[in-house]
Amino acid sequence: MGTIDVHTHSVPSAWPDLRTQAGPGVWPSLRVDSEREAMILLGDVEFRRVGAEAWDAETRLADMDADGVELQVVSPTPVFFSYDKTGDQAAKVARIFNELTLEICAPGGGRLIPFAQVPLQDPDAACAEADRAMASGHAGVEIGNHVGDRDLDDAGTVTFLQHCAERGIPVFVHPWDMPSSPRLERWMARWLTGMPAETHLSIIAMILGGVFDRVPPSLRIAFAHGGGSFAFWLGRFENAWQQRPDLVGVSERPPSAYLDRFSVDSVVFDPAALRLLVDTLGAERVMVGSDYPYPLGERPVGSVVERSDFLDEAQKAAILHGNARRFLGR
């Protein structure tokens, strides 16, 4: 069996003017610079350059074949989430991009697995769009790790996660909208430090906010980028839970008791970091991810797993494809 990559993104080659579709505001648009290159704009500001691999199935499949990837989960690029807009606006945008994701994946012959976005700021609309998207061909949802100052333990988000657990919808959590400051604008520091911290904070919120105590164990939820800095600082977290029960020890059980409730991807780039993930969470809780097609991703896909000589063949098989099949319900 080939590798299953659970963490990739897409950008459509075109989409309608969101000002006419969803109302006034600053929206993402695409400036096409050539047949194989474009720039995502936020209003008039350049946000990210993308290439044809972001929207062209043939290019994606060729890269998958080169890396030995059998299946690839294709999730939206988080800039499209629109969590800063009204729920109605975000629902309209979600439907547009979800339909375009299906179009991107359609030529893949089943190898490109679409994940949908939802208007997470409105739990009822998020549940409705998740159901609609699953009925139309999506296999799961990608959500951002927060909505403004509301983390994953927000009551509305918990309602959505309970819905996903009941419907068997896998959830992939991706950090986004990292804080900015002059110190963080240098050297891509928002991506190098902010993203790991955002994911770490969200796992903490799932534990201390009681989400894992309220959501059924049937919820299949995974966090991007190896769970951020969570695995490295679990010992500090556990110690704080024991030493400061007045502020930290608020979950029903200590943090280490929840490690079997979520998975992470393998985008950590170094066998030593992967070993920490496996030692902390278990090989059954790690899945290959690449962050394709973006430049901070891993190529060849799965190379950190293949280079990790501490893994036996059964563990490698689990991380390369077995765990992803369970996450996807395949």
Automatic annotation (TrEMBL):
InterPro entries: ACMSD, Amidohydro-rel, Metal_Hydrolase. Pathway: Secondary metabolite metabolism; quinolate metabolism. Residues 4-330 form the Amidohydrolase-related domain. Coiled coil: none annotated. Pfam families: Amidohydro_2 (PF04909). The keyword Phosphoprotein does not apply. Its EC number is 4.1.1.45. Keywords: Decarboxylase, Lyase, Metal-binding, Zinc. GO terms for molecular function: aminocarboxymuconate-semialdehyde decarboxylase activity; hydrolase activity; metal ion binding. GO terms for cellular component: cytosol. It is an enzyme of class 4 (lyase). Monomer. This is 2-amino-3-carboxymuconate-6-semialdehyde decarboxylase. It comes from Agromyces mediolanus (Corynebacterium mediolanum). The lineage of its organism: Bacteria, Bacillati, Actinomycetota, Actinomycetes, Micrococcales.
